[in-house]
Design brief:
By secondary structure, the protein is of the alpha+beta class. The chain is 18% helix and 33% strand.
């Protein structure tokens, strides 16, 4: 659920999603990607067409144009090789590389002098074919470059492609993996000495000697596509963001790798009925909730013999997950294991020769254990400090997400961050000065700032982001912690960026100083505002509201609630574009709608463990009640027309929309639900069991949270939309809902888009059609514009007849 909530993935076929995956987490991503998600309020998918400079709505289209430029930028980052940061730093942190106009340039800091590092001429293959790099990496000695190009998607991301080797000394340029299928190589990496490259191709790991060109196959798949070496199956990628599944040993003599056995995972069959006159079955290995996980194990393969030693990790592989794995010493591997319910985490040290494993650190939670795999787009590396004697670790065991230092053997623990606030994410560790840099927002959960504190846990919490810049900050910090690429926006300030020094946060160039570009008058002119609402049950939630243009306080307006409401993502974020509706054809504020969004308990706001985990086993219950009772307070505002109340959402938000329409039919008159999960029993095991438990143990919770259980209560106007080729939230969700509504004689409208996936992006004209459909349905059933009390009474009387 994390990838698809990131709404940008709705446009580009699957997050998470950042979003955000039907989720997000969204979630999911590099600083700039996360910034752009915030910029577009997890809805970075603005439709723009037919601009007319002389049209009275030019300003509307101009704003959408700006958002589209942002979206295109996000798209570039989103489709980069996962695990490859947007900024590729030099080892000393005093410069960085970037791909620019088909070549690779180097930019020195803080001067920002630019030089060509690898020219187009050097990237010319035999036959005068120019190779356009998507990303690249350097060997440890800096004498060789590995160029990634011709990328193709594997589920969500373009992680398979071609790799070319450039010898920077001789200029020799050749393709690796000769004899392998085109665009089939994944996660190629230099050996530590730079003499070899290893990569995955068609679920096996290969090693290629760079001097001789000899390619050696190191693993076996036993003739089945479901024995996966060095990468992962659908659900590991979707829910744990695991993709790159092998690591060179420090001495380059062995490789540690994951093997996923998906042979016991049943296929979910989709049907392609449009690409041929005969239908075609499309199988997806998809473990539904209640089904055991794909057994996973870690092996260490000897490069010279191709013999694998399997780590003796305790626990039934079909009842556990291995979500992280790295080398911790020349002959030692560290890994993190979760039990199936994901409420117990174990960190183990494993001998790479004997396979013997020892548990050094254990953590449990009555709900689920928070892990990096929940909120990062990809988790690679281990945060070692003190020359490998300690590592930095996240835990919520004191009620807040904090950083801890754990000794290598697990016998000692030290708390690094302290206080009633959450560490949103770790950015950089500067051992030289003794500081750790991280995101937090102790005062306002809708915002994000850079903080630092002492690694020894004895220092105060220091805010690095300028206090005057209220909103959402994102940084990419250099390895030496001296410089950072800084991005900022808030709901009334378009995205701004600058390069700064740390820790003083001074802009390289005075003319780029963001603090001088924020305009208080823009805040005063904005029709967007953030608020808090407290329900009759004492739950206080953050929200935003967009008032109509030319707002008349003597009139009452229709209100449209935008909802997500699940553990994968928030919707109330103080970033530019926070209140835009990417599906509406036109300007909702201009047409006379009030727009509102609320973040209920259970969403991943930095409000402490209790807030986030209160939703455990209660998806479809607690979040729905919070949303409805919050809306009840909003409907008391004197400018809201309670006879015109609509709600809509996508994916998890589509599920929430259905539950709100069915469980609170007197409150909401119109609902638009896109690609919804209609019962958690129909979704995958990792996401659902993490937040709902096992259906074999608490089936009643699943039934109470399922929209299907309440479909008979529908009273209002309902439109739901789904792609028949959705590999994430299967079309069966919609078909089962249709059956329930038909059984109870409930009228509804629906639109199925043949062969479209969760993002509904495939096919010419699809999104334009969806936007037209959405807008027309909303206008027909929840008409825009302010009305007087008399007009409302007259309209209600007309409806009665």
């Amino acid at each position: 659920m994390t990838t698809f909530f990131i709404i940008i993935l709705h446009f580009y076929s699957e997050y998470r999603s950042r979003e955000r995956n039907r989720k997000w987490g969204y979630k999911f991503l590099s600083g700039l990607l996360r910034l752009s998600i915030y910029l577009c309020q997890l809805k970075a998918f603005t439709y723009f067409a037919g601009i007319n400079l002389f049209n009275m709505h030019f300003k509307i289209y101009l704003k959408k144009t700006v958002l589209i430029i942002i979206v295109q930028f996000v798209f570039f980052i989103l489709l980069a090789q996962p695990g490859v940061p947007f900024t590729k730093w030099t080892n000393d942190g005093n410069a960085y590389y970037q791909v620019e106009k088909g070549e690779i340039v180097k930019i020195e800091l803080p001067s920002q002098n630019k030089t060509t590092f690898i020219s187009k001429q050097k990237l010319t293959a035999p036959g005068d074919k120019t190779i356009v790099p998507r990303s690249f990496q350097l060997s440890t000695d800096g004498n060789k470059a590995l160029i990634y190009t011709n990328a193709k998607r594997v589920w969500r991301y373009p992680t398979r492609g071609d790799y070319w080797l450039l010898n920077l000394t001789t200029g020799n340029f050749k393709q690796l993996g000769k004899g392998r299928p085109e665009s089939s190589l994944q996660f190629a990496k230099f050996s530590p000495d730079g003499s070899k490259v290893a990569y995955v191709s068609e679920h096996n790991i290969y090693e290629e000697d760079l001097a001789s060109g000899i390619i050696k196959k190191l693993t076996e798949d036993n003739g089945t596509k479901k024995l996966i070496n060095g990468t992962f199956d659908w659900v590991y990628e979707e829910e744990f963001f695991c993709r790159d599944g092998f690591r060179w040993s420090p001495d380059g003599k062995t490789i540690a790798y994951w093997q996923i056995d998906a042979n016991q995972i049943r296929d979910y069959y989709m049907l392609n009925t449009t690409d041929s006159v005969y239908s075609r079955v499309v199988p997806v290995e998809y473990p539904k909730v209640g089904e055991p996980p794909s057994p996973a194990r870690v092996g260490v393969v000897d490069i010279s013999t191709a013999k694998t030693t399997w780590l003796d990790v305790p626990g039934d592989p079909a009842q556990h997950y291995i979500i992280r794995m790295e080398w911790s010493a020349p002959n030692e591997i560290i890994l993190q294991q979760l039990n199936r319910k994901q409420n117990e985490s174990k960190v183990m040290l494993c001998n790479a020769t004997t396979g013997k494993a020892k548990t050094i650190y254990t953590e449990s939670d009555s709900a689920w254990v928070a892990t990096l795999n929940e909120w990062r787009n990809e988790v690679k590396g281990w945060d070692w400090i003190s020359s490998g004697k300690e590592f930095v670790w996240f835990s919520e065991k004191d009620g807040w997400r904090h950083l801890y230092s754990i000794s290598h053997d697990g016998t000692k623990e030290r708390k690094i961050t302290n206080g009633d606030y959450d560490v949103i994410d770790l950015l950089n560790i500067d051992e030289k000065t003794g500081y750790v840099y991280f995101y937090a927002s102790p005062v306002n959960a809708t915002q994000q700032y850079l903080y630092r504190t002492k690694l020894d846990g004895k220092g105060p919490l220091e805010k690095v982001s300028p206090t005057i810049e209220e909103g959402t900050h994102h940084y990419e910090i250099s390895p030496n912690s001296k410089y950072a690429r800084h991005n900022f926006s808030n709901y009334y300030t378009a995205p701004l960026n600058e390069w700064v020094t740390l820790p003083d946060h001074k802009s390289f160039k005075p003319e780029e100083d963001i603090s001088k570009k924020i305009k208080p008058e823009d805040k005063a002119k904005s029709n967007i505002s953030f608020f808090k609402v407290t329900t009759e049950e004492g739950v206080t939630m953050d929200g935003w509201v967009v008032k109509p243009k030319n707002f008349d306080s003597t009139k009452k307006y229709p209100v449209v609630f935008y909802v997500y409401g699940e553990p994968a993502a928030t919707t109330v974020n103080d970033g530019y574009g926070a209140a835009s509706n990417f599906l509406y054809k036109g300007d909702m504020a201009e047409d006379g709608y009030v727009q509102v969004s609320l973040d209920n308990r259970g969403t991943p706001s930095p409000k402490g463990r209790a807030w986030r985990k209160s939703i455990y086993k209660k998806i479809g219950q607690l979040n729905i009640r919070d949303q409805a009772l919050g809306a009840k307070e909003v409907l008391k505002w004197n400018y809201i027309d309670t006879s015109r109340v609509a709600v809509w959402g996508w994916s998890g938000g589509g599920s929430s929309t259905l539950n709100l329409m069915f469980q609170f039919p007197e409150e909401y008159q119109t609902g638009i639900s896109i690609a919804p999960v209609t019962s958690s029993l129909l979704y995958d095991n990792i996401y659902t069991e993490r937040y709902m438990g096992l259906p074999q143990e608490n089936m009643e919770d699943f039934k109470k949270g399922a929209a299907l259980s309440y479909a008979k209560n529908l009273k209002g106007n309902l439109l739901f939309v789904h792609g028949t080729g959705d590999d994430n939230v299967h079309y069966q969700n919609t078909e089962m809902l249709i059956n329930e509504l038909v059984k109870y004689g409930k009228m509804f409208q629906m639109m199925s888009y043949p062969n479209r996936t969760h993002g509904l992006s495939e096919g010419e004209g699809t999104f334009n059609h969806l936007a037209l459909l959405y807008t027309k349905y909303l206008k027909d059933n929840c008409p825009p514009g302010g009305r007087t009390e008399d007009q409302i009474k007259a309209m209600n009387m007309k409806k009665a007849f």
